[in-house]
Design a protein that fits this description.
alpha+beta; 2 domains; 6-stranded antiparallel beta sheet; 3-stranded antiparallel beta sheet; 4 helices; 9 strands; globular
Length: about 190
């Protein structure tokens, strides 16, 4: 089973174990029922924002969807063992769907964590793509490892080159994408309050 399918099955299992109907999930998260079903079935690649909203309704950390085990001590993530956990799309509409980011979790086995660190491989930016910004509670830290990255944040645009970083409140509408057709690689740490 693919990483995306596992993530969807885990979300559905958590929702059902808490006796939350799709209708109730939709009302409490502000998402459409169809969008929740697509996330659970992984018919399309979701953006991060819906997953955070779903996690809030379920009363779990975002990382709960990615956890493989429950390590309470330090967790070391070796470069050669980074595994892709999930991929996200550039937009939340079905018609413009394309894989935009591949996330590699750096702490999936750390129990009780409050931060979600990822290495993210960002696909090259295609000419004419309209990016959809998202909002969610929490904060994000991004460090550009390779290439260059543009961050749309509210009405501003920030360009990060290799070695640059940005820290921002996620409640402001934002989008992260490669600044050109070369793609990019970033270290991102996402914090979402419970």
């Amino acid at each position: 089973m693919s990483a995306n399918k596992k993530l969807g099955a885990r979300i559905k299992q958590l929702r059902e174990s808490k006796s939350i109907s799709l209708e109730e999930m939709a009302v409490r998260s502000g998402l459409d029922i169809a969008q929740i079903q697509k996330v659970e079935e992984m018919d399309h690649l979701p953006s991060l924002s819906p997953l955070i909203k779903i996690a809030r309704v379920l009363g779990v950390r975002l990382g709960t969807f990615l956890d493989d085990s429950d390590e309470f001590g330090p967790v070391v993530s070796r470069r050669e063992r980074h595994t892709k956990t999930v991929s996200f799309t550039t937009s939340e509409t079905e018609t413009e769907e394309r894989k935009h980011m591949e996330y590699y979790a750096l702490s999936a086995s750390k129990a009780g964590r409050h931060m979600e660190p990822f290495i993210i491989q960002i696909a090259p930016t295609e000419v004419g793509v309209n990016f959809v910004t998202s909002t969610h509670e929490g904060e994000e830290f991004i460090f550009c490892l390779e290439g260059s990255v543009e961050i749309t944040y509210g009405n501003s645009m920030y360009l990060l080159e290799e070695g640059d970083s940005i820290y921002y409140d996620s409640i402001v509408a934002h989008h992260v994408h490669a600044a050109d057709e070369q793609g990019a690689k970033i270290l991102a740490v996402v914090y979402t309050p419970m």
